[in-house]
Write a structure and sequence with these properties.
With 291 residues, the protein is an alpha/beta fold. It has two domains: 143 residues, HUPs (Rossmann fold, 3-Layer(aba) Sandwich); 148 residues, Rossmann fold. The chain is 42% helix and 22% strand. A ten-stranded mixed sheet has the order 3-2-1-4-5-10-9-6-7-8, sandwiched between helices. The protein is elongated and about 75 Å long. InterPro entries: UspA. It holds the Pfam family Usp. This is Universal stress protein.
């Protein structure tokens, strides 16, 4: 059973904040969440001397907290226990990572605009630095979730994501699909038959699925799809499968074995985040990786 002791919702005082608060309520109505922290950081570097001269001694933190409180009261009040945290720090990523550790945050909700409105630079930084799982909610996403897709590569990372997806599907009555994207060593064509190579690759992958299902009985019977990369990246194939299967949620495992933060996220999750995908993406770290 999935239960979230503490959840952090990152707000930026834009029009997406109201949507995030409403989606947070939807999450809390579906899953047991003990406490939610609505947070915003005022980057001190953005408070120019002109701003201070114009507004004088106004307490900007109190003003922003009041603004957030109005949104939360309208769209979230009486749902579950919550707290509003407004800070004034020069580095937003660092203070949010500190809050995750301080309040033992298990899941962070992060809003995402389409590429024509934002570079997504801050979001990518947060994915690399936050020591918790992240649920990315695009501005065009729907609150309705009925079908989940989980890509796997047979690593412990993707297996953890699959277990979470299965628990989520069982808990909420969702349909769950698995997919695996395989690549062929095309540099050997036409020395070997492409048709035979495809057949052999699929045989190997099916054997790995069978072995995985034997070792993890709880995921036996979940439908899976084998997709050849065929000139596209793994992330591009996943995105195409999302559209084809009309999925409402994507669950992806995050790697964490490399001690260098910039290398620990994984290329596929990074590429997926930077795409204009209009459904929520749950990027999952295992407890072992977080520790």
């Amino acid at each position: 059973m999935i239960a979230i002791d503490s959840m952090m919702v990152c707000l930026d005082l834009s029009d997406i904040d109201e949507t995030l608060v409403r989606f947070t309520r939807s999450v809390c109505e579906r899953l047991p969440v003990k406490k939610v922290y609505f947070v915003h950081n005022i980057k001190t570097s953005e408070l120019s001397d002109d701003f201070r001269e114009y507004f004088g001694d106004v307490n900007i933190s109190d003003e922003i907290e009041g603004n957030i409180a109005d949104i939360v009261t309208e769209h979230f009040a009486n749902c579950t226990d919550y707290e509003i945290l407004v800070s004034e720090e020069p580095n937003t990523e660092v203070i949010l990572a500190d809050l995750v550790k301080r309040y033992t945050i298990k899941l962070t909700l992060l809003g995402k605009r389409m590429s024509d409105k934002s570079t997504g630079a801050l979001g990518t930084k947060l994915l690399r630095i936050l020591p918790c799982s992240v649920l990315v909610f695009p501005e065009t996403a729907s609150f309705k979730i009925a079908r989940v897709l989980t890509p796997i590569d047979f690593s412990d990372t993707s297996l953890h994501a699959l277990h979470l997806s299965k628990s989520l599907a069982d808990q909420l009555g969702l349909a769950l699909d698995i997919m695996h994207v395989y690549k062929l060593p095309t540099q050997y064509f036409p020395l070997i038959s492409e048709e035979k190579a495809i057949k052999k690759a699929e045989e190997v992958v099916k054997e790995r699925f069978t072995d995985m299902q034997k070792r993890h009985k709880e995921i036996a019977g979940i439908p899976y799809t084998l997709v050849r990369a065929a000139g596209k990246t793994v992330a591009e194939r996943i995105n195409l499968q999302l559209q084809k299967g009309k999925h409402d949620l994507l669950v992806v495992g995050l790697k964490g074995h490399n001690p260098i933060p910039s290398l620990s996220l994984g290329s596929v999750p990074t590429e997926l985040y930077n795409m204009d995908i209009d459904i929520p993406i749950w990027l999952v770290y295992s407890e072992e990786v977080i520790k």
